[in-house]
Design goal:
By secondary structure, the chain is mainly alpha-helical. The chain has helices at about 1-20, 25-40, 45-60, 60-75, 80-90, 95-110, 110-125, 130-140, 145-160, 160-175, 180-195, 200-210, 215-230, 235-250, 255-265. InterPro entries: TPR-like_helical_dom_sf.
Length: about 270
């Protein structure tokens, strides 16, 4: 019974924190997290979130690091802890210390999440060659390799290297031929790049994905965009049908509503 009461109290406290954050009431969330931390000397998560909120509200790095040190004593190896440390140090202008902590975390864990976090940090700092190496490293993890290829491709796409972005996804599909996320990403990049046979290849991938995921709203929307280019009575009818399907699946899909109205008024 005592265990159930404690579990219910933790659940209620977590709900109070989420409610406060959803309402934008950081002060109330901080008070609730301080209460949670004082009531549980093994609650690393609350201390990490508390440090992040305290710094965002007060810019008091010293107070934030008090909570982070308490969290570290409870859970020495934590990607969330490392991420908050790095973000605060970077905001405080201590880039070298932030980088050292990141490097140590990567060396000590050699984990997918560690390389991903450092890659994002390096890319944000404009260290593109180093970021590229870390993103490339992500593709070597057996269980998360497909995600790694997606992240590496996105890194190239964001930096306007579409050819490399496409090449990486093709490489990823050679290794993971049934990975839907890679197929979807390649299709979208081919539509954007629009070179030579890109559109035809993208349409072929779209057809494959539609067969595999017949109720996917995004795929239906892409099909609408393609058939509207034909501007024939049959293509308009197909677009109308797809748009109605999208609205049934996602009633708040504003673009679908507006496009359906535009077709109806033509």
């Amino acid at each position: 019974l005592l265990g159930q009461i404690e579990a219910d109290a933790r659940l209620a406290s977590a709900w109070h924190v989420r409610t406060a954050l959803s309402a934008g009431d950081s002060s109330r969330a901080i008070d609730e997290l301080k209460l949670r931390a004082s009531n549980d000397n093994r609650d690393a998560h609350s201390r990490i979130v508390l440090a992040q909120l305290v710094y965002s509200q007060t810019k008091d790095a010293n107070e934030a690091f008090v909570y982070l040190k308490e969290a570290e004593a409870i859970m020495p190896v934590s990607i969330a802890l490392t991420s908050v440390k790095v973000s605060i140090l970077r905001a405080e202008g201590k880039a070298e210390e932030a980088r050292r902590i990141l490097d140590d975390y990567v060396v000590n864990t050699d984990a997918f999440g560690a390389y991903m976090m450092r890659a994002a940090y390096l890319a944000n700092e404009g260290e593109f060659d180093s970021a590229e190496k870390d993103y490339r490293k992500l593709t070597t993890f057996t269980e998360q390799g497909a995600m790694g290829y997606g992240l590496l491709s996105n890194f190239y796409a964001v930096n306007e290297k579409l050819d490399k972005a496409v090449e990486v996804l093709e490489e990823g599909l050679d290794a993971y031929p049934e990975e839907v996320r890679l197929k979807r990403g390649l299709m979208q990049l081919l539509f954007v790049r629009a070179q030579d046979q890109d559109r035809q290849r993208a349409l072929e991938i779209l057809a494959v994905l539609e067969e595999k995921l017949p109720e996917d709203p995004q795929l239906k929307w892409l099909r609408v965009l393609q058939v509207l280019e034909e501007s024939t009575p049959q293509s308009l009818a197909t677009a109308r049908e797809k748009l109605e399907d999208i609205i049934k699946l996602e009633p708040t899909a504003v673009d679908a509503h507006l496009t359906l109205i535009r077709i109806a008024t033509q």
